[in-house]
Amino acid sequence: MYQPRPGDLLASLDTPAMIVDGQLMEENIARLMARFRETPVRVRPHLKTAKSPELAHRLLAAGVIGCCVAKVSEAEVMALAGIEDLLITSEIVGPPKVTRLVNLLRRHPRIKVVVDSQVGIQVLSAALEVADLHLNVLIELNVGQNRCGVAPGEDALALAQYIASMSHLHLIGVQGYEGHLQHIHDLQERTRRCREAMHLLTTTAAQLRTAGFPIEIVTTGGTGTAEICAQWEGVTEVQPGSFLFMDTDYRNALGPVYANALTILSTVISLPSPNRAIVDAGLKSLSIDSGMPEPLGLPGVQYQPAGDEHGVLFWDKQTNAARLQLAIGDRIAFYPSHIDTTINLHDTYYVCRNGVLEAIWPVTARGKVQ
Ligand SMILES: Cc1ncc(COP(=O)(O)O)c(C=O)c1O
Q: Is 90 exceeded by the pLDDT of residue 320?
């Protein structure tokens, strides 16, 4: 069986394969860290994108203070790999998840979670009391995304009081994620609306402090807004994730702030007609929830999935030159349109530099959605 090894040529890899440009990825990390170095805000990157302990360790070495994960199962992977300061950014609900969290907390006491309901708090608290464990929590606020989160102001205060009545839960912060603003193309509009969200978040944090709650963490922001958030007084942490690799959706919204550092490599397996080529990357290799992936170096050529395992490249007659350049066996690389959902389709990162395979990293938290 062919087993790729560091030192192999990129050209020798089987496809579809997820390729990381090591140089560009390192530059993305350095660029992000440089942007926040001069601010009092710390970076707690979101690992729901990369799903990789190797990348988490690199981020920690670059100076981030800890990491976010979306789910308990992701936290299990990262904690096992030695990443202790983890914030789980989704509400933990249901006995199986609560049991998993408590088991994890026993060995990794620095894990913290967000809460947004009395029901959720009550169930967590009961399990913690039985286990005699303590857990730090952040109240999640709805700052406009209309996903999870209590309303800023009075509702948050009421929830804080409820948490205070639980002996094994300790309120240490607030989270308000403005996911609905990340991809707004117009920077002024993104900035204006982000500042409105930051106002809601930090005003509530101040109200909670006035009421006597020790709010140390005010966490927010993704790749599209983190810098705007960091300029707002009262924000203490930002949670960007996609900046590591970017995708076309983010590039189209933000411009070349970070480089597109990840591609999916495919092979042309059939040329059935003068304006169509079939590649071996379909819905199981490239996600399309944020639009179609973009083939590199083929202007005027478009991609569409042709089932689970196939993709079709097509072009009009004016772009006939592209057809002439394609042959069966050619390698076509794609920029994903949405990096998170594409990475979750792959087992392995092939990290390359100058056309040579440098490292092979498993996507260890792939499929960890529980
Ligand atoms: C709560 C939370 N924080 C941060 C992020 C990171 O955002 P991005 O990958 O856009 O940088 C996400 C992404 O969905 C998120 O859900």
A: no
